[in-house]
Amino acid sequence: MENLYKKLTAAADYICTKAGNDPIHLGMVLGSGLGDLGDQITDAIYIPYKEIPHFPLSTVPGHKGRLVIGMLENKKVLCMQGRFHYYEGYGMDQVVFPIQVMKLLGIKNLLLTNAAGCVNTAWHPGDLMIITDHIKLSSENPMRGPNCDELGDRFFDMSHVWSKDLQKLATDCGQKLGITLRKGVYQLFTGPSFETPAEVKFARFCGADAVGMSTVPEAIAAGQMHMNLLGISCLTNMAAGILDQPLNHKEVLETGEKVKDPFISLVRLIVKSWA
Predict the structure, then answer these.
(1) CA-based angle 104:129:26, to the nearest 5?
(2) What's phi and psi for 239, nearest 5 deg?
(3) Of residues 274, 171, 158, 275, the one with CA closest to residue 222
(4) Which of 1, 88, 228, 251 is catalytic?
(5) 241 Cβ neighbours under 8 A, 6+ residues apart
(6) Residue 88 bears catalytic tag
(7) Cα–Cα distance for residue pair 49/28, rounded to 1 Å
(8) Which end of the chain is more exposed for a tag (fewer CB within 10 A), N or C?
(9) Is 85 among the residues known to form the active site?
């Protein structure tokens, strides 16, 4: 797909003019509540999304809308302070554009974080969950349309997109910090409306432990490109119908703020330990 590849190349080339061509060990997408981690990167270069050719713009409160490239735990990293969502009006192909740019920058490792609604009634708001698998019932797919052969095959396996080795690494890091990490399945709902109680019951029936409006398209793109992928959800609220109270985005941000410090400590140790 020549058009897409040209756009990706233009974006990657621009980033290199700002950040240089030194290898980047890890790409990270910082979800709601974790954006402050980007401010802890040293020797940092900040690139607003609006400057990067063909990049979408983040419109969600709490998302700073920029790339941060620099050093974290003695590793060069690239962080997205704010991601793009289907509910913002972007196509799935636009949502995953930055992940594809990371691949052209030579990044092989990817950490996805998000805020999610908790479906598992045995868990609690503020828990952190390692994503072991995902469910996407939406018909839209980021790889729909002409295939960009430079990124990967037209048809590709998704059986092991979430690395079991990295799940173990995250679990070990949690144990060292005294943080209990849940393990579960994340299900995508496209938003921006929160799920209905009936949809949450359906998600639980399907085997989901958490629901959210992001991450899965990025994981699909990473799967096509054979990136080493780890995902962690901050369970910011009980999903609809579990508690007798309405859902709102303010609760998501407030819970994310409460668990920000242990979440950041966990991510830093994971980055330090990531081979």
Answers:
(1) 20
(2) -65, 165
(3) 158
(4) 88
(5) 196, 197, 198, 200, 201
(6) yes
(7) 15
(8) C
(9) yes
Give the separation between CA 57 and CA 50, rounded to whole angstroms: 6
Question: Checking phi first, is residue 157 left (phi over 0); if not, alpha (psi -120 to 50) or beta?
Answer: beta
Q: Which residues pair with 230 in a beta bridge?
A: 111
- Please tell me which residue in 85, 116, 210, 233 is annotated as part of the active site: 85
Q: Is 160 one of the catalytic residues? A: no
CA–CA separation, 271 and 275 (whole Å)? 9
Catalytic residue, from 63, 73, 199, 221: name it: 63
214 is known as an active-site residue = yes
Q: Which of 259, 275, 267, 196 is CA-nearest to residue 232?
A: 267
Look-up of token digits 């849940």: 182
148-160 pLDDT, tens digit per residue, is 999 999 999 999 9
Rounded distance between C-alpha atoms, residue 132 and residue 58, angstroms: 27
Backbone phi, then psi, for 190, in 5-degree steps? -80, -20
Query: Which tokens in the block code for residue 4?
Result: 């897409």
Query: What pairs with residue 136 in β-bridges?
Result: 188
pTM exceeds 0.90 = yes
Tens of pLDDT, residues 85-119: 999 999 999 999 999 999 999 999 999 999 999 99
CA-closest candidate to residue 31, choices 74, 61, 73: 61
Task: Please indicate whether residue 213 is annotated as part of the active site.
Answer: yes
Is the preceding omega at residue 56 within 30 degrees of 0, hence cis?
no
